Amino acid sequence: MTVTPFRVALVGRGAAEIRAAARFAIESLRANPDEAMAGGEGVYYWPKPLASAGELAFVFPGSGNHFVGMGRGVGLRWPGVLDAMDARVERLASQTMCRWFAPYRASWEEGWEDSAQGAVERDTRRMIFGQVAFGIMMSNLLRHIGILPRAIIGYSLGESAGLFASRAWPDSDEMLRRMMASDLFASELYGERRAIQRAWGLSAEQAATWRAVILPKPAADVRAAIHEAARQGERFARLLIVNTPSESIVGGLPSSLEAVAGILKCRMVPVANIPTVHFEAVKEVEQAYQALHLLPTESQAGLRFYSGVKGGAYEVTRESAAESITGQALLGFDYTRVIESAYADGVRLFVEIGPQGSCTRMIRRILGERPHFAMTASVKGECEADSVVKLAAALAAQGVEIDVAEVNGVEEVVETEKAVRAGRGQVVVKLGRAAPRPTWPEWASDELRLKLDAGVAAQAEALRDTGLERADAGAAMRVVANEYMGSDELIQTAGDAAVAVGRAHEAFLAFSEAASRGVGAVIEGQARLMEFGGGVVPSMGGPWDFEFVSPSSPSAQPSPFKGEELLSLRSKTLKNSKESAVRLMKTICLIARCAWSLRLANLSRFCGRSLRWWIPIQCACGCRRSL
Predict the structure, then answer these.
(1) Which of 164, 165, 227, 249 has the most other CB atoms within 10 Å of its CB?
(2) What is the mean pLDDT of residues 386-392?
(3) Residues near 221 by Cβ (< 8 Å), separated by ≥ 6?
(4) What's the pLDDT score for residue 106?
């Protein structure tokens, strides 16, 4: 008897779900081994796996697919992916735009997500960088678990995301600097949309109404309808992108779009937050657009890159990459040609990096019933870790070798002491640990060591009668930094900060003393002025121990205080007040510098590397940063 091998992948949250999925798979295979199973009941199976018959491509979608919270689940489940990104770039938090996509809030009232989404969409650079960073992160994760591409396919913004994710463009920090210094996506192609104002002779109010819509019609029919609408006077509509053989994206002013849809007798599906690109308005900023994308490239052996405007694969160089991206921004592109070209080159497995799955839908419509696999790694509204696990299971069933251990993740368990059985049915777990004895850094003086050692000993004595052994927070922090960081780097940094704090405190004491002298001089001056005016100086024995005497009182004697002395005293008082204010400002600045001298990157390692991306830090001087 011949036994036919099957590749089946099962997904479940526990042993019970896995057993149920296995029973379902066995029953289905016995009943109909030629029927595919695409995740129903946690089972993935294809009778003819495609991994051995074709290549795998990473697909990067265009702008407008972003959503608040994207990337957070991946960062929490696989923190090493973020650590690897952090090691390669200078400003990870700025590139991921985590302040907007993972907002830190004091309240989470109903509607907060809409508010956060609106904050993201107020600046197209937030959408662009957030989505590109997500593509890099997800691409790194999929490679880490064994999903290796042979082709990179981008849709609009996805072309740039694919170049960065594959490291063909290795310097994302440089693009961040260029984008933030440029007004291309701040006011020329988004925001005020000045480029389209100049290209079409529109007012600012008219340009603000520009939008893009999806029309479920073939490109030929859409072009004819645009021509007819222009003949009728509605000339502000352009074909931007051909999505599929029966779907197109058109951009323009509302009245012209409605005229085109009316001629085609179809409905319009709005596409939100799209810059004014993929038509001739980009001609107004063509040189700046191309210069923005002229970045150094690195050859990536074994990878093919596909260009939207060329409709096929091309060799990536500094110039060719910039030309491809500028070309599709100026002329639009036909996504159908790109996918057909990739399929003809042997791609059979299309893995959409995300966010969301807009390209997966289009690929399935373009290829129809031809053998292929298309699936996204990111499903909005679904746990990101679950989406990745399902994708990995589906690809395993298609014959891709997956590192299952990395997919499941490695859970780190910190054990204090072994559980002790104290009787039938009871397990007693002893909490806490003995007070540690950390290694002293070189900067600590003998006197300081003796004082702190005495404090630890006194604490242990105080806790002895309670039957518990706990370490104070300060000692625990020192031992964790010493034991888990594997070096004295954080301790040395904290030592430098401690020295700076001491200096700041010394400066503050000096300021306080000077301020006291200044206040005394002011009081003295006020008293002298009162005497000069004919009043009687009150007793200063206490805060309320005084009363004023009218100048007309018999006891009030004119003061022999001269005008020159009055002016001299007033000048001296103002000078003391000014010096006190200067000392105060210097002290505040010294304390702020001291706070930042802790080197937040090292401190974040102590607090937990997996959370570094999402922790907002506010320093003493009011600056706000995110790790």
Answers:
(1) 165
(2) 95
(3) 264
(4) 78
CA distance 443 to 420: 42
Q: Give the CA distances from residue 301 to residues 68, 165, 349, 401, 494, in Å, rounded to whole numbers and listed in that order.
A: 35, 14, 19, 20, 45
- Amino acid of residue 266: C
Tokens of 276: 């004014």
CA atoms within 13 A on the CB side of 501: 10
Q: How far apart are CA 406 and CA 417, in angstroms?
A: 28
Q: Strand, coil or helix: what is 412?
A: coil
Is the bond into 355 cis (omega within 30 degrees of 0)? yes
- CB environment 567-598: b (16+ within 10 A), e (fewer): eebeeebeebeeebeebbeebeebbbebbbbb
Question: What angle do helix axes 124-144 and 79-88 make, rounded to 10 degrees?
Answer: 120
Judged by average pLDDT, the poorest of 213-222, 299-308, 349-358, 399-408 is 399-408
**What is the average pLDDT across 428-436?**
55
Give the helix ranges, DSSP H, for 212-300.
219-231, 254-264, 286-292
Tell me the pLDDT of the chain averaged across its residues.
79
Determine which of 168-182, 304-318, 442-456, 470-484 has the lowest per-residue pLDDT on average: 470-484
Task: Extract the tokens encoding 461.
Answer: 């004595």
pLDDT of residue 397: 96
Distance between CA atoms of 215 and 232, rounded to whole angstroms? 20
Q: How far is CA 225 from CA 190, 221, 241, 257, 264, in A?
A: 27, 6, 15, 10, 7
Average pLDDT rounded to a whole number, residues 132-137: 96
How far is the C-alpha of 425 from the C-alpha of 431, rounded, in Å?
Answer: 19
Please provide the size of the chain in residues: 627
Q: Are 522 and 574 in contact (CB under 8 A)?
A: no
